[in-house]
Design goal:
3-stranded antiparallel sheet; alpha+beta; de novo design (two linked rop proteins); 252 residues
Length: 252
């Protein structure tokens, strides 16, 4: 315990009382943390301009055993995310990425792989990567890092190649089966070949590499449907940020 310092990505910033703010952040080495930035809302606060959602920063905090919130002493901004939030679509997407990460990250448990996934996704978006592709890539890998969505190659029951036998997502469970083993009953989701191809590519290519030869829109929609089903079964609900994003997209 005591004084800690680590590179981190800010996930959420909320007002607390009259002058403070509560900050949720994902560290590279120490997992997810929640801390208080005292007097952060005051005009001449040392945190002025530093508390930006999805910014990358070096954070120093004091941690005491048994306390839910750490006390943040300093934040050194390393990379701003303001450019990603210059329009409504960008605001919705970044809120979704932060919400998604906060849901899967574990308190006080090292989560470097999830940290690197969010960090590289933000880096690619800032470099101009397609937002739709970045979101679908992030979704697939976020599930994969939880161990519930391995790269789809072979049916775990019969060993048949999905490319030949086709694949389905059973009504119960979070893994894929071939069409024969998975059945065709109520609640079984047929996995489109485009989605399988997309997921295979995410397993062997980085987001920047995929952006050089982006998948067709149909593949992204099929992948979004599949990962959405798996995510909802795993969480037993949908992320509110995703629901808001889809509701606003439907109106525009």
């Amino acid at each position: 315990m005591g004084v800690q310092s680590d590179e981190a990505l800010l996930l959420e910033v909320r007002d607390l009382h009259d002058a403070d703010r509560v900050v949720s952040f994902l560290t590279r080495e120490r997992g997810k943390k929640r801390g208080v930035a005292r007097s952060a809302r005051r005009k001449h606060s040392r945190f002025a301009g530093q508390l930006q959602p999805l910014a990358k920063a070096r954070i120093t905090w004091f941690e005491k055993e048994g306390r839910d919130l750490v006390r943040i002493s300093s934040i050194e901004l390393l990379r701003s995310a303001h450019r990603l939030q210059a329009d409504l679509d960008g605001i919705l997407l970044t809120a979704y990425l932060a919400d998604h990460t906060a849901e899967f990250a574990q308190e006080d448990e090292p989560g470097e792989h999830l940290y690197r996934l969010l960090d590289s996704t933000l880096e690619a978006l800032l470099a101009g990567a397609d937002r739709d592709l970045a979101a679908r890539y992030f979704e697939a890998w976020a599930l994969r890092l939880q161990g519930i969505f391995p790269p789809p190659r072979l049916c775990p029951i019969c060993g048949r190649d999905f490319a030949e036998a086709g694949a389905v997502l059973p009504a119960e469970g979070e893994g894929l089966l071939c069409a024969e083993c998975g059945g065709r009953g109520r609640g079984v989701l047929r996995v489109e070949p485009e989605a399988l191809d997309f997921l295979r590519r995410t397993a062997r290519q980085g987001l920047t590499e995929m952006a050089r030869r982006p998948p067709p829109p149909a593949a992204l929609r099929a992948a979004e449907e599949l990962t959405g089903h798996v995510r909802r079964r795993f969480l037993h609900r949908e992320l509110r940020s995703y629901e808001v994003m889809k509701r606003i997209e439907a109106r525009t």
